[in-house]
Design goal:
This protein is of the alpha+beta class. Helices cover about 55% and strands about 15% of the residues. It has a five-stranded antiparallel beta sheet, sandwiched between helices. The two termini are about 35 Å apart.
Length: about 260
């Protein structure tokens, strides 16, 4: 299945929903890479939590667990994060396949657990919240809006071939020149295609893809971290660890050991 994301429409839809609800939300593709997100930057609790490496790591793990459950169950999934806030993942489904996901976060739950972060921040009472019925209506609405207006089950041939080449050669040293030679297009055309479909550079996309794949292997395989790093095309262990920690909020070893 070839998937095309209309980035500008996704941005417009999420911006409008944010303006309507005041809730932070974003859209991720099938590789769990954010295409766009809109967050409440003044949410004191989240800012407090993510000030420390430990807090940032716990937030990252919480997000990954939520996304994994939503992908496997192919239905909207909600949970209360370690900071006591409600996060929800809503799949966009076509032909029984998840083709994208909307993440709704930083929501004050109706019946949440009082955590140390909540107790320390009186601003918690001012955070956005919805009733169960309102949240259900929002979930039913946004997946239809996104799919009907911003996700097409088709894709430019250049992007299809580029993504296929990247996935098949993820263990190798990929370069822009290699991709251009394989696709018979100019560097400028390749850059424009990736910015149009994914709102990022080619190298940024490749790095995200590598780290996301490595995260899956760390959770599902018994291979050593060094072997996994090499299998996603990063032979330098130190560099791999730095990239992984930047993306996931913790080292590969710690990520594997987390409950």
């Amino acid at each position: 299945m070839n998937i095309r994301y209309d980035v500008e429409k996704i941005k417009e839809i999420i911006d409008n929903l944010y303006g309507l609800t005041g809730l932070s939300m974003g859209f991720i593709d099938t590789h769990n890479i954010y295409i766009y997100k809109k967050t409440r930057e003044n949410d004191v609790i989240c800012m407090k939590v993510q000030q420390t490496p430990e807090g940032h790591a716990r937030c990252t793990c919480s997000d990954m667990d939520l996304i994994d459950r939503c992908t496997k169950e192919k239905r909207p999934v909600s949970h209360i994060c370690h900071a006591g806030l409600l996060d929800t993942a809503v799949p966009v489904i076509k032909n029984h396949t998840v083709v994208g996901m909307i993440i709704i976060g930083r929501v004050r739950p109706n019946n949440g657990v009082v955590t140390e972060y909540i107790e320390a921040n009186p601003q918690y009472a001012m955070m956005g919240t919805l009733s169960d019925e309102q949240m259900e209506n929002l979930i039913n609405l946004i997946s239809h809006i996104i799919f009907e207006n911003a996700v097409e089950i088709d894709c430019d041939d250049v992007i299809v071939r580029a993504l296929d080449y990247i996935d098949k050669n993820i263990a190798s040293e990929l370069s822009i020149n290699q991709l251009c030679n394989y696709l018979y297009i100019s560097r400028n055309s390749l850059y424009k295609a990736f910015h149009s479909y994914f709102d990022c550079t080619v190298n940024e996309y490749i790095t995200r893809r590598r780290i996301n794949k490595a995260a899956v292997l760390l959770r599902e395989s018994g291979d050593s971290v060094t072997t996994i790093a090499e299998s996603v095309g990063i032979s330098n262990y130190t560099y791999f660890s730095r990239l992984f920690k930047k993306k996931m909020g913790m080292s590969p070893i710690r990520y594997r050991k987390k409950p």
